[in-house]
Amino acid sequence: MTPRSRRTLRRILSLMAGMVVASVALSGCLYAQIPESAPAVTRTPDTSGVSGDLLPYYAQKLDWTACGAGFDCTDVTAPLDWENPDAGDISLAIVRHSAGAAAQGSLLVNPGGPGASGYDFVADSLGYAVGVDLIEKFDVIGFDPRGVGRSTAVSCLDPKAMDDYLYGVIDEPRNTPEWEAALTARDKTFAEACDANSQGILPYITTVNSARDMDLIRGVLGDETLNYLGYSYGTFLGATYAKLYPERAQRLVLDGALDPSVSGTQVGTTQAIGFESALRAYLSDCLTTKECPFNGTLDEALSDFRALLSAVSRSPLRNGDGRMLSVDTMVTGVITAMYSQQSWGYLTKGLTAALQGDPSVMFALADSYNSRNPDGSYADNTAEAFMAYNCMDYPVEDDQATEDAAMKVLEAKAPTFAPYWQGPDPCEVWPYPPVGVREPITASGSGPIVVVGTTNDPATPYEWSVSLAKQLQNGVLVTRVGEGHTGYNKGNSCVDQAVEGYLIDGMVPEDGLRCE
Q: What is stated as this protein's family in its record (predicted)?
């Protein structure tokens, strides 16, 4: 049986797209008063070293308009195909909160994904995206990468069809040839819809092209070098930028790193183990509370939790809106809450309700992951863009021995999630072959690149941050000891001071700094 490594890679990593923002809503966090925006200082575009065929893009004049209290917005025109600029143009949407004359330049921010809206991340949760000190010192820039949101976007299915794709229950027995065939047919319908409705952009939705877009944004904003804060998948985008433009990659912070050298199979396997570890931490904490639906020892609670998953797998639960909670949707909801320790209480409510036959809270968690609104509409195209990027970025893997070995590791180290971590790879039916590679990134010639890793981060396990910091010629590792996804602006002053001191003053943290 084919392990679900590629499928898991695409489904689980998509949590990175929304959960940095969604954790704000789930936890109800409050942040310090955001400084008011000041009139932006116009800088001359930086066109140094730009070839003649790309000069019109780098020299373009931006038309900024107000777009909400304290923000202004514009669109940047970029080539569809960076290798052939005559092939047509795309539009990149950006939003700015300006520090005015005090600004040291622009700070580009990416929340992850691939497929997350950096525009919404900054416009809707500026104080969560960056700390107050950064807001006071930089023009904070959120942008929608190509294929995402307000930029020229991937488009696949209407809301009802997306519901069927993301939440539909497969009636065939799990892990049978019939079940796999049904999933493949559903994936094929999705892929064909993406190709038909995305204006021919699918072959160009790659991280390399997005990194080139990011350099264009830097240039038209008038910055000679890049200041960048990337979370989760945004670390891969940032590392790719440093690989392509090391001389311009001078102050980069990569938080919650994705190791660019590991394969899709390794990513899926490592993440499953990470979520298993986070689940054990959650249940250990849950058992100390009166509200916990489980009791006894940790092993007994794990056994009861697995029994609940098995029960839902056999008999999905009907929601008030008619949707059926499958075990896959339930796993999505559980994993969603693993991204922030502050969301554990919400998970406890969801599991308690599910044990009583009410799936509404688990659906709310899964809906936040999928950017689905209560009225059935979708807030963005995260799931669609996510699939487009990963199907182009990750090389095809067809080594059965490697997949079998990965499944054995999953069963041994992630026994709770292993039964739900397998299935056909949806990228096998994607209409275009992948062009990405998986290899170490050294970014020789870059400035210091600060990599922040959290010791029990389930989505981007700590070992990936350690690995990326070692790969980078000028990598600097900062460790946050704790739970949850990413480390900056999470209440750890040691991490915050290291990140902000570097971005603002160029003070490079001690390599190996450990923040308890």
A: Belongs to the peptidase S33 family.
CA separation for the pair 167, 162 (Å, rounded) = 8
pLDDT digits (tens, 9 = 90+) for 354-386: 999 999 999 999 999 999 999 999 999 999 999
Vertex 341: Cα angle to 335 and 344 (nearest 5): 65
Tell me the two tokens of residue 72.
């202004």
Residue type, 256: G
Neighbours of 474 (CB within 10 A): 20
Q: What is the rounded average pLDDT of the residues 502-511?
A: 98
Q: How many residues does the chain have?
A: 516
Residue type for position 299: D
Six token digits for residue 87: 């092939």
Pairing of strands 139-143, 317-318: unpaired
Taking the C-alpha atoms of residue 470 and residue 117, their distance in angstroms, rounded to an integer, is 29
* Contact predicate 97/71, CB 8 Å: yes
Backbone angles phi, psi at 371, to 5 degrees: 60, 35
**DSSP-based three-state secondary structure for 171:** coil
CA 258, CA 240: separation in Å to the nearest integer? 11
Q: Do residues 21 and 111 lie in contact, with contact meaning Cβ atoms separated by under 8 Å?
A: yes
The whole-angstrom separation of Cα 289 and Cα 231 is 32
Average pLDDT of the segment spanning 435-448: 97
CA 288 remoteness from chain centre? 31
Q: Are strands 226-231 and 106-110 parallel, antiparallel or unpaired?
A: parallel
CA 210 – CA 198 distance, rounded (Å): 17
d(CA 214, CA 223): 12
- This prediction has a pTM of 0.94
Residue type, 324: M
Domains of the chain, with CATH numbers? 1-516 (3.40.50.1820)
Residue pair 504/498 in contact (Cβ under 8 Å)? The answer is: no
Mean pLDDT score, 411-438: 94
**Active-site residue list:** 232, 457, 485
Amino acid at 468: L
Helix axes 327-337, 298-314, angle to 10 degrees: 140
